[in-house]
Design goal:
Elements: E1 13-17, H1 29-37, E2 40-43, H2 46-55, E3 62-64, H3 70-82, E4 86-89, H4 103-111, E5 116-119, H5 124-132, E6 139-141, H6 149-158, E7 165-170, H7 175-186, E8 190-195, E9 203-208, H8 209-219, E10 226-230, H9 233-238, H10 243-254, H11 259-270, H12 274-285
Parallel strand pairs: 1-4, 1-5, 2-3, 2-4, 6-7
Antiparallel strand pairs: 7-10, 8-9, 8-10
Length: 290
């Protein structure tokens, strides 16, 4: 096979470059070429990015660019591009802007008429979708869930009606509580916990949310980086829903909706008889049907 070479000239502009999420071999030929030829690289953490560049023998000026300094550093990066420099934007791992800072820099560079392009590559959310064994024709990426239990349950409940796979990142130490809250809000949907993707101890654990919640409650928090994929509402409707599970969902719904609205929502979500759910909602809320 002929050697693949990338000889495209790197002109002034902003280059959004995806980097590996674990396996250093996943840096593309084009990404390496761009990083070797830009004038400077904006990154979240210079220490993390420094290790990546060192492994590829790339020596370029690194500029920290993250949530805490973006407002201050963004004008400097835009000025550098205006002066004719090529600037690369990378994250600690994966594709920049996916639950990472950067969209304002891209927007302002575009608005200023600068050349902007993206060099695609690894993304933890897409990698997890590829391995989870759940539908990928429709999905929504949700970033990170809230830290507090009540807010997290509300967060899941807000997405309960979506007929699309739910994809989100979570801290490993919060995973046991998160799985329990997901089960409380969404019931026993099919799901997958994808951990340490592309790394030595890569693992995909599949099951219902009930099964995953029970596993992590017993085993404790795992180690490493975690992506969770949960099946959409259509999978939940097609599965048999127990009375206990319907009650759990109804309790959460009643915290945000009227009795009538909550009953209709839960009946549609679970496939249960609307009249039965309405009577149960009246009982749980202490309201009168008169």
């Amino acid at each position: 096979m002929a050697e693949i070479r990338c000889t495209q000239k790197i002109g002034p502009g902003l280059y959004v470059v995806a980097t590996p999420i674990g396996n250093l071999a996943d840096l593309s030929t084009r990404a390496r070429h761009v990083l070797e030829n830009v004038d400077l690289i904006a990154c979240e953490d210079t220490r993390v990015s420094g290790m990546l560049l060192t492994s590829y023998l790339i020596k370029k000026p690194l500029v920290p660019y993250h949530d805490h300094n973006a407002a201050r550093e963004r004008p400097k990066l835009l000025a550098a591009i205006a002066e004719g420099k090529a600037v690369a934007l990378i994250s600690d791992a994966g594709t920049p802007l996916i639950s990472d800072p950067g969209y304002k820099l891209v927007a302002e560079a575009q608005d200023a008429g600068h050349y902007v392009t993206a060099i695609p590559g690894a993304c933890a959310a897409i990698t997890a979708l590829s391995m989870a064994g759940l539908p990928t024709d429709r999905f929504i990426f949700l970033g990170f869930p809230p830290v507090k239990t009540k807010a997290r349950q509300d967060w899941f409940t807000a997405e309960a009606g979506l007929e699309a796979s739910l994809v989100f990142y979570e801290s490993a130490k919060r995973l046991p509580d998160c799985m329990q809250d997901a089960f409380t809000a969404l019931g026993p949907r099919p799901a997958a916990v994808c951990r340490e993707l592309t790394k030595k101890f890569e693992e995909v654990r599949r099951g219902t949310l009930e099964e995953l919640a029970a596993h992590y409650a017993e085993a404790g928090a795992p180690k490493g980086e975690v992506v969770v994929v949960i099946g959409g509402a259509e999978h939940y409707k097609s599965s048999e829903t127990t009375e206990l599970e319907t009650t759990q969902i109804l309790k959460v719904a009643l915290e945000h909706m009227s009795v009538k609205t909550a009953a209709a929502f839960v009946a549609e979500l679970t496939g249960a008889r609307k009249k039965d759910v309405y009577n149960q909602a009246l009982e749980l809320s202490g309201a009168s049907g008169a």
